[in-house]
Amino acid sequence: MQSGEQTYNTVMGPGLVITHCCSVRRDPITATPELVHMKHQKKQFAICVRNEGAEDLEIRKVYQILPDTRAAKEKHVRVIDESGEDYLYPADYFIPLTLPLEVERALSGAPR
């Protein structure tokens, strides 16, 4: 996983600006109620539309997204990459997809 050199600022209020460096990070998953029930949830997918500072992402590639409310509050999504590992990326790097069941099954490797 490469860390990018690109930075951007988030204005949190008067006199408070947070500078971020690409915000691509490995964040260990802890057992939360949402993750415990993840097996019973419909798989979510998104297409990558940006990759500044995260060149390991491929633009126009479909990735599986894991639910993570804590990451969502920080405007990030948890993405599973080719290695099977999950990483946090800025949410605006992806567009969520609604796929037909057959396509979801094909992407997740589930039997027909």
Short description:
The protein is an alpha+beta fold.
What does this structure look like?
Helix content is 15%, strand content 33%. The protein has a single domain (24-108), classed as SH3 Domains (SH3 type barrels), CATH 2.30.30.40. The N and C termini lie far apart (33 Å). It has three helices and seven strands, in the order ββαββαβββα. The chain has a five-stranded antiparallel beta sheet with strand order 6-5-4-3-7. The protein has 112 residues and is an alpha+beta fold.
Task: Tell me what portion of residues adopts beta-strand conformation.
Answer: 25-35%
Structural class: alpha+beta
CATH topology term? SH3 type barrels
Shape: globular
| Unreliable stretches covering 5 or more consecutive residues | 1-25
Overall number of strands: 7
Q: Could you estimate the helical fraction of the residues in percent?
A: 10-25%
Can you tell me the CATH architecture? Roll
Order of helices and strands: EEHEEHEEEH
Distance between the termini: 33 Å
For the record, the count of structural domains works out to: 1
Overall pLDDT, averaged? 75
Q: What topology, given as strand order, has the largest sheet?
A: 6-5-4-3-7
